[in-house]
Amino acid sequence: MKLKFDYNNMMDCAIGAHGIKKSEIDGAMTAHQSAFTEVIANSGKGWQEWTETPMISDATVDELCAFGKSIRDKATSFVVLGIGGSALGPICVFNALLHLHHNELPKEMRKAPKIYVEDNVDPERMASLLDVIDIKTSYFNVITKSGETSETLSQFIILYNMLKKALGETAAKEHIFVTTTDGKGSLYNVAKKEGFKIFGIPSGVGGRFSVLSNVGLVPFAVMGLDIKSMLAGARAMRKACENKDVYKNPALMTAFLQVKSMQAGKNISVMMPYADGLRTMADFYCQIWAESLGKAVDKAGKTVNYGQTPAKSLGVTDQHSQVQLYTEGPYDKVVTFIGVEQYGATVDIPNDSADVGDFLKGHTLNELITAERKSTEFALTKAGRSNFTILLPEVNAETVGELLMYFMYQTAFAGAYLNIDTFNQPGVEEGKKATFAMIGRKGYEEKLKELNSAVKKDEYIIC
Ligand code: PA5
């Protein structure tokens, strides 16, 4: 394992009364054991098939990469249509592993076509996409686990219709490939009928745990990323997370510390990477943490209304915005810093003659960002605020694979400590059904009645 996890600043020895005591960790051995067993004994079973996603064979990876290259060689733009767990994995890995201004690079400097992940149905966004892509040379990966999601299906209908008009029926089919649950759902049926290439999602891999299944791997293959290293990283993290010693298992330990903090009123979990490439890793984290742990009832059916609200922050940018609140506001947060030891570029601050900033001259931006991360850790710790640091030696396919797998295990362990169903999302499903009803989908007439009776039409509206 390449990542390091430093949780000193979660402990009372660093932050005083708001910290966790070693005796609390040691006194919870039964809870550690049971959370560990719950996750590890169910590895690969039920909704925990995600633990198996990094175990695919090299031959399967080679096939995916060959497919990816065939698209890469002919596409000017590659567009992912998906939302939630069907979009955030592709987005965060794209940002982490390709150039920060990938789409703006001249063609000869780009390793892949221009890449867009369209997860919203803001009509202006769709119109803007159509202004910048050439539909005739663009390829679309429609990703939806259920095959039923309104946002993704509407985008698919619009773009397939345009492709048919631009290229004719036969050629249009070559520009669409679908990632969905094998043998199930509306999109699967239409893909079969139309003859689109289909990549399967195993039935026991849920959206937010699917980044290392075909949901992520197909886009990563088109992006030309080193999938084998990414999966090797994920397997290394899996191994670390299969260690039953809480002091040696980063996901088990940090899940426990977060849950313990949450139970002590720290209801906000801030994810603060110090790298622009990892900015959207915080989005990935926010989804998996919120959607998995925000639950009304526990497994025994008792109302618990659990959850810790995730918030994203970017170092150093948000030092000049949110860090004041983190340092002096309520004691209701745990801040996770993500640091990078070796950045992908080194930028010198020259010994210029300009009579300003002498203290900076001769240093590098690398030294400055690192000093700022450590200083913020120091300031928070001095103010008695819970924080811990995940350190990546560098951002590459392997460390990104480790980090993604860590987030999945940490979330699974946290759900097990809380004794909730980590893998369902009844709140999201309710909204999806209400959308079907409002938009007039057959079979949702009762839901529409319920909705109409619930909506208060004229009360409490200003203007
Ligand atoms: O994690 C989840 O299950 C959700 O966020 C889904 O990924 C999201 O709702 C999209 O669903 P689907 O992939 O079925 O279109």
The percentage of residues in β strands lies in 5-15%
Low-confidence stretches: none
Largest sheet strand order: 1-12-11-7-10
Order of helices and strands: EHHHHEHEHEHHEHEHHHEHEEEHEHEHHH
Radius of gyration from the alpha-carbon trace, in angstroms? 23 Å
Mean pLDDT: 96
Specify the structural class.
Answer: alpha/beta
The number of helical elements comes to 18
- What small molecules does this complex bind? 5-phosphoarabinonic acid
Shape: globular
**In which range does the helix fraction lie?**
40-55%
Structure description:
The protein is globular, with a radius of gyration of 23 Å. The protein is built from 18 helices and 12 strands. 43% of the residues are buried. α15 links the parallel β11 and β12. The strands form 3 sheets. A 5-stranded mixed sheet has the order 1-12-11-7-10, with helices on both faces. 5-phosphoarabinonic acid binds next to loops.
SSE layout and pairing:
Blueprint: E1 4-6, H1 12-15, H2 22-26, H3 29-41, H4 58-74, E2 77-81, H5 88-97, E3 114-118, H6 123-132, E4 138-144, H7 150-167, H8 169-174, E5 176-181, H9 186-194, E6 197-201, H10 214-223, H11 227-241, H12 250-263, E7 268-273, H13 281-293, E8 295-297, E9 303-306, E10 309-312, H14 323-328, E11 333-342, H15 365-382, E12 386-394, H16 397-418, H17 426-438, H18 445-454
Parallel strand pairs: 2-3, 2-4, 4-5, 5-6, 7-10, 7-11, 11-12
Antiparallel strand pairs: 1-12, 8-9
Bound molecules: 5-phosphoarabinonic acid.
Short summary:
The chain is 46% helix and 14% strand. It has a five-stranded mixed beta sheet with strand order 1-12-11-7-10, sandwiched between helices. Strands 3-2-4-5-6 form a five-stranded parallel beta sheet, sandwiched between helices. 5-phosphoarabinonic acid binds next to loops.
